[in-house]
UniProtKB/TrEMBL annotation:
Main localization of the protein described in the UniProt heading: membrane
Residue ranges constituting the Thioredoxin domain according to the UniProt record: 559-688
Signal peptide annotation: 1-22
Stated name of the protein: Protein-disulfide reductase DsbD family protein
Membrane topology: Multi-pass membrane protein
C-alpha cells in the first residue's frame, strides 16, 4: 500500500495546486488558510539602503495538520515561492528550520506540525533615498496534510518596507533571534560520504567533547540518495560523527547535502563529498569521559584566562587593595582564610551568574556572548559611575561605608562584595585562553558549562586565595606604613584610565550626546561623594540621604542614555587602512574571487581587541604585508551586539570577541588565530 499512498498524494497535490493557482487569494500581510496560517514578517520594516533584511514566513499549522520541509521525504511536496520584488531588490532561497519526522503507511515524511518560520534574505540596492517604498509580494503554493488526507493550498502575502535607518526593535530582534537559532548553522568543515554494500556512511567533523543529542538524525536535502524510512545510526568516532543508513538503489551523486540534528531545534547544514569512510562499531556512543575531558580542558583554560585578568587596569587596583589589607597583619590565620574564601565566593558567584544568564538567553534564541551587558549603553554608564566612585575612593575623597552585616561577618561580607565587584568590572576583558574555553562552554551540557565559568572565577580569585592560605606569601608582602596611603593614591590612576576608557566606549556606542550626559551624571556623582566625604571628616556617617542621592544619580544616568544610537553611517565609513565592514556576503565574494581574507571581530569595550589593533593589526608592517599578498581585511564590529554577527562568532565556537580568522584561497576552513597578535604573526600568514 506504500506505493498507492504515494501515488494518491501526488495526484491530489498536482490537481489541487493547479486549481488553486487559478483562484489566487487577495494579497495581505498575513493569510489565514484552511489549515495553515501564514504571515510575512520583516526583521525591520525600515532597512538601510545597500543593506540586507531578513524576512520570515511565520507559519502556524492547525492541530493535527502539518506542512513540509524543503525535502518532504517519501511523500508530499515542498512549498513553492513566487516573489514580486521592486527593481534591484533580490531575495535568497528560503532557509528552513530543523524539521520533524512523521511515518505514515511506512512512508517517512519530513514535516512541521508546530509553528515554524522559513527565512529569506532580501538585499536592498544601494543609492535609494530615505523613505523609498519597497513593496514585496509573495505567492506560495504548498501542500498541507493530516494523518489521513492532503490538501493543496495557496497564500498571497504582501509587505511594504520603507528605506530608513535599519534599526530593529527589541521585540522583533528577540523573535528573529529565536527563528535564526532554529535554522541549521553551516558546517564549514569538510564532510565525506561513501556508499558500499547497499549502505551509506557519512563522516561529519564534530568536536569529541561537544554534546550531541541521543536522537541525532541526518535529514538529507539531496534527493534520491537515502532510503528515508530506514533507521539510522549516529556514532561518535573521535572528532567526527558517522551516520550510517540504507542507500537507495539509484544513489550515485558525487555530493550530498543535508542537515544533522544535534539537539532540540539545533542542527548543522552539512555538505559532503564522495570519498572513503571507515566503518565504526554501531554500539559506540558518546562516552561520558569525553565530555568530562572536554570540560576539564575548558576549565583549565578558563582558569588560566581568569588568572591573567588580574593584571588588567580595572582589576589590579582592587586585588592590590585586598593584598594590602592582609599586609597590615591585623588578621590571624583563620580570619585570613575566611576573607580569601569569601572573596573567591564573590568572584565565582558573579562569573557563574553571568554564565547562567548567557546560557539562558541563548536557550531563548538570543545571540549573546561574554560581556553581553556591555552592548547596552545603560550598563556602560553604571560601570562608568562605579569606576569613578572607586577612583575617588582610592584618591581619598571619601571612604566606602561598611554596612552592619559586614561587621557582624568579621569582614567576610566585605570580601565577598569586593570579589563580586572585581569580577563584574573584569567582564570587558578577554585574554589568552579565555576565548576558546568559554566558546567550548557554550556547546557543553549546562552543568559542565557552568563549571567552566566557575573556573574563570577561580582563576581570577586565585592570587588572593593563595595569599589567604599560604602564610609564606603573606610574609613576602611589604611591611605596613605610610607608603600604603601613597600607594593607594597611585592605584587610583589605572582606575581613572578605566573610567576614561568607559567614557570613550559610551561615546562610540551611543553617540556624543550620550557621552555628554554620562559626564554630567558623573559630575553629579562626584559632588555627592564630595559632600559625603566632608560629612565623614566631620565625624558623621555617610548618611541615608547621600545613599539615596547616589541611587538617584545612577537611575537618572541609565535612563538618560536609553535608546540613544550613534551615527551608523559614520561608523561604517570610518574603517582603518582600506578595511571593509564584515558581512557574510562580502566574505563569500572575496573568497570566490580567490583573495586571502583576514577577518577580525572586535568591540569598543574589548580591551584585548583594542590592544591587538593598535599593536599588531593597524601597523605599517602588517599593512605592507597584507598589501604585498593582496589580503582583504574585513572588520566585524560587535560593540552593539549585532545578532547576525553573533551567530557567525558562535559558529566558530567562540563566546565573544576577539575572534581572528584567516581564509586562504582554496581552503574551506579558516585559520583561527590566537587572541594575542603580533605584526610578525600577521606578516607570516601564508598567501596560498
Amino acid at each position: 500500500m506504500r506505493w498507492f499512498h504515494y501515488a494518491m498524494v501526488t495526484v491530489v497535490a498536482v490537481l489541487g495546486m493547479g486549481a488553486a493557482q487559478a483562484e489566487p487569494a487577495a494579497p495581505d500581510s498575513g493569510v489565514v488558510g484552511r489549515h495553515l496560517t501564514m504571515t510575512l514578517v520583516a526583521e525591520t520594516e525600515h532597512p538601510a539602503t545597500g543593506s540586507s533584511v531578513t524576512l520570515a514566513l511565520a507559519t502556524v499549522p492547525q492541530p493535527g495538520w502539518h506542512g513540509y520541509w524543503e525535502n518532504p521525504g517519501d511523500a508530499g511536496f515542498p512549498a513553492k515561492f513566487e516573489w514580486t520584488l521592486p527593481k534591484g531588490v533580490t531575495v535568497s532561497d528560503p532557509s528552513y528550520p530543523v524539521p520533524g519526522r512523521l511515518v505514515v503507511a511506512d512512508l517517512m515524511n519530513y514535516v512541521f506540525d508546530k509553528p515554524y518560520a522559513p527565512l529569506v534574505t532580501l538585499s536592498v540596492p544601494a543609492g535609494l533615498a530615505q523613505g523609498t517604498a519597497l513593496p514585496v509580494k509573495l505567492h506560495v503554493n504548498y501542500l498541507v496534510c493530516s494523518a489521513t488526507v492532503c490538501v493543496p493550498e495557496t497564500a498571497d502575502l504582501a509587505i511594504t518596507l520603507t528605506v530608513g535607518d535599519g534599526v530593529t526593535s527589541a521585540q522583533a530582534q528577540a523573535q528573529f533571534d529565536a527563528w535564526h537559532r532554529a535554522v541549521p548553522r553551516p558546517l564549514n568543515a569538510k564532510s565525506v560520504f561513501q556508499i558500499a554494500g547497499g549502505s551509506i556512511r557519512i563522516a561529519i567533523p564534530y568536536p569529541a567533547g561537544a554534546a550531541v543529542a541521543k536522537d541525532a538524525y541526518f535529514y538529507p536535502i539531496t534527493p534520491g540518495m537515502i532510503d528515508y524510512a530506514k533507521p539510522q545510526s549516529v556514532v561518535r568516532d573521535g572528532d567526527r560523527l558517522v551516520v550510517e543508513t540504507k542507500a537507495t538503489a539509484a544513489a550515485g551523486a558525487t555530493s550530498l547535502k543535508g542537515v544533522l540534528q544535534i539537539g532540540a531545534q539545533q542542527g548543522l547544514l552539512v555538505t559532503a563529498a564522495a570519498g572513503s569512510v571507515a566503518s565504526v562499531a554501531s554500539t559506540a556512543s558518546a562516552p561520558a569521559n569525553n565530555v568530562w575531558l572536554a570540560t576539564a580542558i575548558a576549565f583549565a583554560g578558563a582558569m588560566l584566562g581568569g588568572l591573567i585578568l588580574n593584571i588588567m587596569p580595572c582589576v589590579f587596583p582592587i586585588l592590590s587593595l585586598k593584598a594590602l589589607s592582609l599586609a597590615r597583619g591585623h588578621l590571624d590565620e583563620r580570619a585570613a582564610r575566611h576573607e580569601a574564601l569569601a572573596y573567591t565566593g564573590g568572584v565565582v558567584a558573579v562569573c557563574v551568574g553571568l554564565g547562567a544568564a548567557i546560557l539562558a538567553l541563548r536557550a531563548g534564541g538570543t545571540a549573546v556572548g561574554w560581556a553581553f551587558q556591555l552592548q547596552d549603553p545603560r550598563a556602560i554608564v553604571l560601570l562608568l559611575l562605579l569606576t569613578v566612585a572607586l577612583s575617588l575612593n582610592l584618591g581619598g575623597l571619601f571612604e566606602i561605608p561598611t554596612p552592619a552585616f559586614v561587621n557582624r561577618s568579621g569582614g567576610a561580607g566585605g570580601a565577598f562584595a569586593t570579589g563580586a565587584l572585581a569580577a563584574f568590572i573584569a567582564t570587558p576583558c578577554t585574554g589568552p585562553f579565555m576565548g576558546a574555553a568559554l566558546g567550548a562552554a557554550l556547546v557543553l551540557p549546562w552543568p559542565a558549562a557552568l563549571a567552566v565559568f566557575a573556573g574563570l572565577g577561580l582563576g581570577l580569585a586565585l592570587p588572593f586565595l593563595a595569599l589567604g592560605f599560604v602564610p609564606a606569601l603573606r610574609k613576602r608582602l611589604p611591611k605596613p606604613g605610610m607608603w600604603m596611603e601613597t600607594f593607594r593614591r597611585i592605584l587610583s590612576v589605572p582606575m581613572w584610565l578605566t573610567a576614561i576608557a568607559l567614557a570613550w566606549v559610551l561615546g562610540k556606542e551611543a553617540g556624543v550626546d550620550a557621552l555628554a550626559l554620562g559626564l554630567v551624571v558623573t559630575l553629579a556623582l562626584a559632588i555627592v561623594l564630595w559632600v559625603a566625604g566632608q560629612r565623614q571628616r566631620a565625624g558623621l556617617g555617610f548618611g541615608v540621604v547621600m545613599t539615596l542621592l547616589l541611587l538617584g544619580v545612577a537611575i537618572v544616568g541609565a535612563w538618560s542614555v536609553s535608546g540613544r544610537h550613534p551615527d551608523r553611517a559614520a561608523n561604517t565609513a570610518a574603517q582603518p587602512g582600506g578595511a571593509e565592514p564584515f558581512s557574510e556576503a562580502r566574505l563569500d565574494g572575496l573568497r570566490k574571487a580567490g583573495r586571502p581574507v583576514f577577518v577580525y571581530f572586535t568591540a569598543d569595550w574589548c580591551l584585548t581587541c583594542k590592544v591587538n589593533e593598535k599593536a599588531a593589526i593597524e601597523t605599517d608592517a602588517t599593512r605592507a604585508a597584507f598589501a604585498a599578498h593582496n589580503v582583504a581585511v574585513l572588520i566585524g564590529d560587535w560593540t552593539n551586539g549585532d545578532p547576525v554577527m553573533g551567530r557567525f562568532i558562535e559558529a566558530h565556537n567562540r563566546a565573544g570577541v576577539p575572534l581572528y580568522l584567516y581564509y586562504r584561497p582554496g581552503i574551506d576552513q579558516p585559520m583561527v588565530l590566537p587572541q594575542v597578535l603580533s605584526p610578525a604573526l600577521l606578516a607570516s600568514l601564508p598567501a596560498k
